[in-house]
Amino acid sequence: xxxxxxxxxxxxxxxxxxxxxxxxxxxxxxxxxxxxxxxxxxxxxxxxxxxxxxxxxxxxxxxxxxxxxxxxxxxxxxxxxxxxxxxxxxxxxxxxxxxxxxxxxxxxxxxxxxxxxxxxxxxxxxxxxxxxxxxxxxxxxxxxxxxxxxxxxxxxxxxxxxxxxxxxxxxxxxxxxxxxxxxxxxxxxxxxxxxxxxxxxxxxxxxxxxxxxxxxxxxxxxxxxxxxxxxxxxxxxxxxxxxxxxxxxxxxxxxxxxxxxxxxxxxxxxxxxxxxxxxxxxxxxxxxxxxxxxxxxxxxxxxxxxxxxxxxxxxxxxxxxxxxxxxxxxxxxxxxxxxxxxxxxxxxxxxxxxxxxxxxxxxxxxxxxxxxxxxxxxxxxxxxxxxxxxxxxxxxxxxxxxxxxxxxxxxxxxxxxxxxxxxxxxxxxxxxxxxxxxxxxxxxxxxxxxxxxxxxxxxxxxxxxxxxxxxxxxxxxxxxxxxxxxxxxxxxxxxxxxxxxxxxxxxxxxxxxxxxxxxxxxxxxxxxxxxxxxxxxxxxxxxxxxxxxxxxxxxxxxxxxxxxxxxxxxxxxxxxxxxxxxxxxxxxxxxxxxxxxxxxxxxxxxxxxxx
Amino acid sequence: xxxxxxxxxxxxxxxxxxxxxxxxxxxxxxxxxxxxxxxxxxxxxxxxxxxxxxxxxxxxxxxxxxxxxxxxxxxxxxxxxxxxxxxxxxxxxxxxxxxxxxxxxxxxxxxxxxxxxxxxxxxxxxxxxxxxxxxxxxxxxxxxxxxxxxxxxxxxxxxxxxxxxxxxxxxxxxxxxxxxxxxxxxxxxxxxxxxxxxxxxxxxxxxxxxxxxxxxxxxxxxxxxxxxxxxxxxxxxxxxxxxxxxxxxxxxxxxxxxxxxxxxxxxxxxxxxxxxxxxxxxxxxxxxxxxxxxxxxxxxxxxxxxxxxxxxxxxxxxxxxxxxxxxxxxxxxxxxxxxxxxxxxxxxxxxxxxxxxxxxxxxxxxxxxxxxxxxxxxxxxxxxxxxxxxxxxxxxxxxxxxxxxxxxxxxxxxxxxxxxxxxxxxxxxxxxxxxxxxxxxxxxxxxxxxxxxxxxxxxxxxxxxxxxxxxxxxxxxxxxxxxxxxxxxxxxxxxxxxxxxxxxxxxxxxxxxxxxxxxxxxxxxxxxxxxxxxxxxxxxxxxxxxxxxxxxxxxxxxxxxxxxxxxxxxxxxxxxxxxxxxxxxxxxxxxxxxxxxxxxxxxxxxxxxxx
Lengths: 611, 611
Description:
Largest interface: A-B, 71 and 71 residues
Distance between the termini of chain A: 49 Å
Strand content of chain A: 15-25%
Largest sheet of chain A: 6 strands, mixed
Number of helices of chain A: 14
Strand order of the largest sheet of chain A: 1-6-7-11-14-13
Oligomer: homodimer
Structural class of chain A: alpha+beta
Shape of chain A: globular
Radius of gyration of chain A: 24 Å
Helix content of chain A: 25-40%
Number of strands of chain A: 25
C-alpha cells in the first residue's frame, strides 16, 4: 500500500536562500530560546526528577515539551550540526531519567513525583501523549548519536504500557485522551523492526470509540472532542480538538499503510477531504474554535477569532506527509506548501525568539475585549496579537523547533521509478542513488533549475503548484496527475512556474470571507498591516483587475513586498446610509502574512473587500 | 427644559391600516396568550401569594412579568377597550396582594414567600426592578379604571423603600442591580404630583457608581455590566447589560428634564450618540452580545450571533421618546421608526402568539451548533431561530403587550406653537385642542393626508423620514430641523414622501457588514428567506443599480414584497480558488425582516453581498 517513499530530511541540505535562513534561525536562535524558557519554567527539572528539590510546579505534559526539544536536537545532529552543549544537557537528563524510571518501566515526571497512585487512572492526563513524544525524541536521539539509553528507557516503558493496557488491562481506560502514542509506536516499529510496537499502535486505533470503560473526559466535553465517539474506521468528519485529531489521523494513516488496511486508509481520506474542502484556513491553519481548540462546523472560518493553533498546522502537514505515501496526488504537496509558507512560518517571530500558539488571520484592535469588557474573569477573548517566548501550555514552541529541523522531509519522495519533487528550495540533495543540486529563488521566483549528478530513477516529477497557471519546461514533458513528468536522463532541467500576484476567493459557504479576496504571490498569502497602511482596513476595497507592483525581496522577511492601489470609503460618520460612492484612491503595501505582528501591535487583514 | 410635550396614546385611534392590525392582534391574541402562559407557569399565583399551596417555582422577577401585563391591560382600557375578564383577574390579584403586603409596606412575591430574611440584601435580586414595574402597572391601572388600590399598595411600598434606602439606610446596597425603579418613580411623581417620588428617583440616580457599599453583582461581572462603575453624569459610553442600560437612561433623561439638570441630560445625549452612531443594528436592535445580554464594543454588530433582545429595542424606543422631549430633533423619531417597523415588529409572530427574546439578523442553519458540537453543557450558542410562547426569563412578551397597547405614544408631540407629527399611520387624533384625521397607507405608501378638524397650533411639523430623498407638499412649506413646517391654517394638507426601494450600506467599521447592503422600502428593512429563495444566501451578490419590482401588499404580513435579480456564485467545490467570475442570474423575493421565521426553519439574510 505504501506506493511512495518519502525522502528523509537528512538527504536535503539547504543552500543559500529562504529555507536555509529559516533552518538556521531555528538552529541558532529558536532552539536555544525554547531551551532557556523551559529551563526557567522548570520543565527540564521536572524530567530530571528534581521536583522535590526545586520549586517547579509540575504540569502533566511537561515531559512532552522537553521530548520535542530533544527530538529537534536529534534531527539537527542528524543533519550534521554540532551541538555539544545540547548533547550534554540531554545525556545528563537521560541519566536522571534512568535513575528515576520505576522498576516496572513506568516513567512520567508528573505521576512519579506528584501523583504516584494515580497512574493510568485519568485519560485526560496525557500520560500516553507524553510517552509518545518521549518515544519520538528517543528515536531521533538514537539515530543522531547512536546513544540508545533513552530509547532503551522508552522500550521498557512501552512494555509497561503494553502490560497495563493490553495484557493485564489494569489501566482505567483503553485509549489516551490526547492522541500521539499511535504515531510514535509506528515510528518505533520502523526504527526497531519489532512488530510488537505496530501491534500496540493498532490496538489503540482499534480500541478508540468502542471502549467499554468510561472514557468520558469530563462533563464539559462530549466524545467528539477526543475522537472517541465512533470506531475510527467509520470516521468521515474531522471533529473535536484539532491537534488531537490530526495526530490521530497520522497514526491511523501510518498504521493503515503498514498493516495494509484499506478501510482505515479510506477513513483517513474522508477526514482529509473534510479538512481540506471545508475546514482549513487559506494559511493552512486548522481548528478555528477557541472553545476546545477544535474544529467547528464546515466552513466556519472566522478570521478575527481564528484559533488555528501552530501545532495543528504542523500536524496537518505531517498528516499530508503520511497520506502522500499512499498515492501520487499533488494535493498533499499543495497543502504542505500552503502550510509551510503561511501557517507554519507565521508561528515564529522574525527574530526566532517568540511564537504564536493561536495564529489569528485578522487583527482589529478596536474589537479587542469586546465581550470581556463586562467580564473580567471569563474566557471569551480574541487570540493573542503578539508572539510569546513561552506559554503555560507551551506545546507549540518545541514543535516548531522539531519541524524546522526536519523541514527537508517535505521536499522529495520516490514513487516506483519516479523521483518526485514536492517542494522547491535551493538545496543539495543526495540519498546515494539520487543526487542533484536545485537552484531557485523560490518562493520569490518560480524558476527552478535541477543539475542532476546521479539518478537511478527513470522519471522526474515536478509538482505543479496549485497557484500556477502557466509554466515553461526546458525539455520534453508530460503532465501527469498534477505533476510535470520529464525523463531523468538530462543533466540539467529547468522548470519555470510563472509567478505573478493573484487574488484568491473563498467558497461563499465560508461566511467570514464572503465578498472578500486575498492577495497571494506564489505560495505566499499576503496581508495588510495598519503600520504600513494607516486606514481602517475594512474600509478598503480592491479591484481584482488592478495592477500589482512586485517589490524586491525584503531583508526583513525574505520575501517580496507587493503594492497596489485600492479604494477607501470616506465620510462615513453615520452607522447607516443609503448606498453611495464616496471613496478615494489609496496606495497599499502588502507583506507576507507570516511576517505580521513583528512590530508594534496594529490591525492586520488578509481578506480584503473586493471592489 | 422639557421643550416638547409628547401626546399620549389615548388621543390616538388607529383606523384601518397596518398599525390597527398590529394593535388589535396584541389586544385580541398576544395579551391573552401571555396571560395563559403566565398563569400556567405560576407567575400569577406567585403574586397571589399562593405559593405555599401551589407548585409554582417562584422566580425573583415574576412580579415584573405580571406587572407589565397589568400595565398593558391598563393602557388598553384607557384606549376604551372593554376587558372585563382581565379586570376581574387583576382586581382579585390586587386583593391578594393587599392581604399579603407586610405591615411596613414591603411587597415582593419571591422574598415574602421564599426568602423573607433576605430582603434588600442582594442587589442582583431585582427587588427594585420588580417594584418599578409594579408601580408602572399600578399607575396605568389607576388611570384606566380609577381603581387606586394597587397604586395605594405601591405608594406604601415606595415609602418602605425610601426608609430602607434613604432614611434608615439599612438596605445592603444603595442601587438596584437592574434599573427600572428610577423611571417608575418619575412616572409616579407625574401621576401624583408628589415630589418625594422624584426626589427618590434622583437619589438612586445620584447614588449609582459612587456607593460606598459593596455593589459588585458577582465575580463574573464588573461594574460596567450594571452601569455602576462611574457617576452617571460622567457617562459617555453605552455599556453593560443593554436593557438595564436603556431603562437607566430613560430614568436619567426623565429626572434631568424634571429637575432641570443639563449635566445629566448631556450624559444622556452622549450615550444616545454612542448607541445610535456605533451600537445599533439596522433594525433598531441593541445589545449585540449574548454574554451579559450586553453592549459590546463600538461597531461590533454580528448578524448571526445578534442578541438584540426585544426588551432592549423597546427600551431604546422609550429612551428616544424621553429624549424627544428635550429638543426638536428628527433623529429621535427616526430611531423610533426604525425600531417600530423592524426590531419591535420582529419580536412577535404573525399569529400574535409567540415572541422572540433574541432577534437574530441572520439565520444560517449550517452554522447551528458549530461550537457546541463538542460541548453538550456549555453556553456558547446562536440565538433561537423561532419565537416561543413563554421563556424561563419571560420579560419580553408582556413588554411587547404593553408597548403595542401604547404605540400611539410614539406618534405626536407639541413643541411650543407647533404640533409635531413624528410617525405616520391611519389615525383619528383628538386631544381636545387639536383634532385631525390622518389618511395614509404608510408604511406601504408615503402619501399622507391630514384633514384638520381643530387646531390651536400655529404650525404643523411633519418629520421627514431618514430614508426619504424627495417629497411633495400640497401647500407652502419650509424645511426646519428635519421637519416640513406648514401653517396650521389649512383644512387639508397632503405630504408625499416618495417611497421606492433603496439599498443601505453600513459604516465599514462594522466588520460584519463590510461589502454588504440591505434592501429597504420606506422604513422597512427587508430580508431573504431560503424558503422563497432556495440558494445559499451568502453565495448571492446584488448590483445596487438593479431594478427592484415592488409587489402588492401581502395579506400575510401587511407589507409589500420586493423582487429583484441578482447573481449566484456557481461551481464552487473547492474551498479556495483564484478569482474568477462564474455566476448565474437568479430571481430573488424579499420580505420584510420582521416577518421572518414564521414558517418552517430556514436560512435568513438581511445584509447581502454587494456586486
